[in-house]
Amino acid sequence: MDPERSLAFRGFQKRSPEKVKLRKRKSALYAGAQDQGSGGRGLLGENTYLVLLTVAFRVLNCALVQTSFVPDEYWQSLEVAHRMVFNYGYLTWEWTEQLRGYTYPLIFASIYKILYLLGKDSVQLLIWIPRLGQALLSAVADVRLYSLMKQLENQEVARWVFFCQLTSWFTWYCCTRTLTNTMETVLTIIALFYYPLEGSKTRSSVKYSSLVALAFLIRPTAVIPWVPLLLRHFWQEQSKLNLLLHHFLPVGFVTLSLSLMIDRIFFGQWTLVQFNFLKFNVLQNLGTFYGSHPWHWYFSQGFPVVLGTHLPFFVHGCLRAPKRLQTLLLAVLWTLLVYSMLGHKEFRFIYPVVPFCMVFCGCSLAQLKTHRKAALGFLLLSNTSLALYTGLVHQRGTLDVMSHIQKLCQDRPSKASVFVMMPCHSTPHYSHIHCPLAMRFLQCPPDLTGKTHYLDEAGMFYLNPLHWLHQEFQHNTSLPSHLIIFNVLEKEISAFLISRNYEKTAVFFHTHLPEGRTGSHVYVYERKSNEKFNR
Questions:
Q1: pLDDT over 90 for what percent of the chain?
Q2: What is the three-class DSSP state of 308?
Q3: What is d(CA 37, CA 262) in angstroms, rounded to the nearest whole number?
Q4: What is the pLDDT of residues 455-507, one digit of tens each?
Q5: What span, in angstroms and rounded, lies between the C-alpha atoms of 307 and 194?
Q6: How many degrees, rounded to 5, is the angle at CA 261 between CA 257 and CA 263?
Q7: For residue 321, how many C-alpha atoms fall within 13 Å in the half-sphere facing its CB?
Q8: What is the pLDDT of residues 309-318, one digit of tens each?
Q9: pLDDT digit string (tens) for 199-244?
């Protein structure tokens, strides 16, 4: 061997371990800098292209969801925001009873105000900009879930969790809607990113507790999935007093004070809406006025429907996932049990734990080797078809009819009036026409006085629709110019429609699965003058 090369070789052997580690660290930093410069980690600490593709996916998601889900999507967010900014609109009974807070609608009211100041407050922008904003937040939550799983497991598992999150039909159906449940879910995912799970590198008690507190302000039941997680953190924390005094209590004080001040401004008095909400829905259980289900409904119907074809992978993932993820499974089971104890149940209530379930579905896919391609194809095909059907077809008539009613604002808004004779809150209201058109719908507030036999206006109407109409409109001068009904009501009130010179002027498909008072199509009837009608 050449003497010089021999000396170099011996010198290499004598290098200290510290120098070797330093050299490796510099190489890693250099590689990271190259990755950063090439667009590798420019957004949210992740690959720029991944983030942009996720945003594009959720924007497409937003565009391909053109159906209605539940009334709260509009009546507890956009309708309230419209009234806050434009000084006309309708507030449901929850607002007069101070069961809802203005923190969430204030987000959309801010958007509306900016559009108004810019002179861009067209009805289409008022409808779509809030939804696009929600889509962007959902995209951020998707990326955060992917980043968290890379820390907890590895990149392969993170990819499959990310795949499951993006292919979940229920997430597609909900994540761009202006529902409090959607914002609750987004905040839950991002808070989990900062929660001190074993293996997490982004722990921050202040950040995650602030996000949980904000979710609680928006919807008090958002704290339910966090009860076992908060207890686990408190139990494992060595300095419990410090955690309470310097993290949880200051965060709770600041967020609650903010909520109190916002509601004081808009209600005109001090009120704790979170307590009122819990009192009505939990302590008094008055939510059953809007329907009730047996205790096992979430386990026998709700949860299987929400997970859809991901369910077998969730079960498999629960059996194969590492123990450090069992805390998330406990949060899922706890949430299902708590909601099962309440009489009034809905699919959307358990939406915040769907991302938790996708973690286990991803772990399942990571374990599969021989049948993975078949599983991916099955999940992709089944969820895509269901997502497109529910997003583009099922229950779209009540939105399409509002686009039709918008034309009245351009033609003769002062002379037109609309009466929506459907189950209450079936359609959006002023947020989807954006003009002070006279509109009325059947009321359905619950009985807060304790009467034995109570019927709201909608209930009285459906007992005998024809009799109710003749009693309500005894004089032709009080008749609305347009009536909106489901097709199932047409035959029953046909005598009234004929005698009052109403003609069917528009038909909109609504659903292939009509049920009860909800029909397959939405009809618009317009009252014609006697001369025009006779011709």
A1: 79
A2: helix
A3: 43
A4: 899 999 999 999 999 999 988 888 999 999 999 999 999 999 999 999 999 99
A5: 25
A6: 115
A7: 30
A8: 999 999 999 9
A9: 999 999 999 999 999 999 999 999 999 999 999 999 999 999 999 9
- DSSP run (H or E) holding 200: none
Q: How far apart are CA 200 and CA 151, in angstroms?
A: 6
Domain boundaries, the chain: 3-35, 48-146+159-392, 397-534
Among residues 367, 435, 401, which one has the least CA distance to residue 505? 401
Residue 175 CA to residue 238 CA, distance in Å, equals: 37
Residues in the chain: 535
Give the residues across from 507 on adjacent strands.
523
Q: What is the pLDDT of residues 334-353, one digit of tens each?
A: 999 999 998 889 999 999 99
How far apart CA 12 and CA 110 sit, in angstroms, is 64
Q: DSSP string spanning 330-394? A: HHHHHHHHHHHTSS---GGGGGGGHHHHHHHHHHHHHH--TTHHHHHHHHHHHHHHHHHHHHHTT
Rounded to the nearest 5°, which phi and psi values hold at 487?
-60, -25
Contacts of 386 (CB under 8 A, 6+ apart): 169, 308
Q: Which residue has the tokens 């289409």?
A: 124
Give the pLDDT confidence score for residue 29 in this predicted structure: 40
Give the integer Cα–Cα distance in Å for 527 and 412. 14
Predicted TM-score of the model (pTM): 0.89
Q: What's the one-letter identity of residue 433?
A: I
Structure tokens at 347: 């699919």
Amino acid 11 reads G
- SS3 label, residue 505: strand
DSSP at 518: B
The Cα–Cα gap between 523 and 490 comes to 8
Give the residues across from 515 on adjacent strands: 518
Class of domain 397-534: alpha beta
pLDDT of 6 > 60? The answer is no
Of the listed ranges 290-299, 411-420, 433-442, the least confidently predicted one is: 411-420
Q: Would you state the structure tokens that stand for residue 267, as one six-digit string?
A: 């209600």
> What is the DSSP code (8-state) at residue 528?
P
158 contact partners, CB below 8 Å, separation of at least 6: 146, 147, 149, 150, 362
User: CB neighbours of 504 closer than 8 A, spacing ≥ 6?
Assistant: 523, 524, 525
User: Tokens 């999940």 — which residue?
Assistant: 379
pLDDT digits (tens, 9 = 90+) for 346-379: 999 999 999 999 999 999 999 998 899 999 999 9
Question: Could you give the CA distance from residue 121 to residue 130 in angstroms, rounded to a whole number?
Answer: 12
Calpha distance 44→521 (Å, rounded): 45
Q: φ, ψ for residue 355 (rounded to 5)?
A: -60, -35
For residue 283, the SS3 value is helix
Contact call for residues 430 and 90 (beta carbons, < 8 A): yes
Whether residue 162 contacts residue 142, with contact meaning beta carbons closer than 8 Å, is answered with yes
Q: Average model confidence (pLDDT) for the chain?
A: 90
Please report the DSSP string for 18-62 in residue order. HHHHHHHHHHHHHHHHHHHHTTSS-BTTB-HHHHHHHHHHHHHHH
